[in-house]
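User: I'm writing a short report section on ligand binding and want a predicted complex to refer to. Could you take this sequence and zinc ion and write out the structure as tokens? A short remark afterwards would be nice.
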Amino acid sequence: MENRDQVAAQNHACASCKHQRRKCDETCEMAPYFPASRYSEFQNAQKIFGVSNIQKIMAMAAPDQRQAAAESILAERECKEK
Ligand SMILES: [Zn+2]
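Assistant: Sure. The structure tokens for the complex follow:
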């Protein structure tokens, strides 16, 4: 479905890894949700939430909720948690 983002995730570090200067590979759980094309949005979000909190939010979200969680993070909104 999102072929462009998948290619980007494979060829470039995702926004999270790029920010942390980490190697990004196919096991990266952040890559599908924070592609390099959204790096500037990720930068803004991590200033508010912090990378560790973003990772925590993503880890706590159920797999089918992660896309929505990522969108909330990138939109700089508080992620609602039960
Ligand atoms: Zn990554």
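A remark for your report: Residues 3-74 form one domain. The pocket of zinc ion is lined by residues 13-14, 16-17, 24, 28, 30-31 (CB under 6 Å).
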